[in-house]
Design a protein that fits this description.
Shape: globular
Largest sheet: 4 strands, mixed
Distance between the termini: 63 Å
Radius of gyration: 18 Å
Order of helices and strands: HEEEEEEE
Number of strands: 7
Structural class: alpha+beta
Strand order of the largest sheet: 1-6-7-5
Number of domains: 1
Strand content: 25-35%
């Protein structure tokens, strides 16, 4: 019994030492680990983004992001200041949100303001 407990502890510690990777964008680049671990990040259509005063206004319709399911009744509207936007490696818009709709990361094409 003691051997089984020791082996279980070794496996648990080894699993904890493995690197944590974020998931991959559809175009092949990895979302940064501090933005997501599973389905927090996804590309969004350009029509979901417009420029506002000092940043972007992003509207996520229910079902248009893995973390904003079609069961939601209202769209998620986020204001993202320009200084919070990261350059998108594939030239597309991407947003990372948690299950409450809080912004984790936002990626804008290089030609966006």
């Amino acid at each position: 019994m003691r051997l089984i407990a020791s082996l279980a502890m070794v496996l648990f510690l080894a699993a904890g030492a493995m690197p944590v990777h974020a998931h991959e964008a559809p175009s092949g680049w990895d979302y940064p680990f501090y933005c997501c671990l599973d389905s927090d990040c996804a590309p969004i259509e350009a029509e979901a983004v417009r420029e506002g005063h000092g940043g972007f206004i992003v509207t996520i319709a229910p079902g248009k992001h893995p973390m904003w399911s079609s069961e939601r009744r209202q769209p998620l509207i986020l204001e993202v200041p320009y200084d919070k936007a990261k350059q998108s490696p594939d030239g597309r818009w991407h947003i990372c949100i948690d299950d409450t709709g809080d912004l984790l990361c936002f990626f804008a094409p290089a030609d966006a303001s």
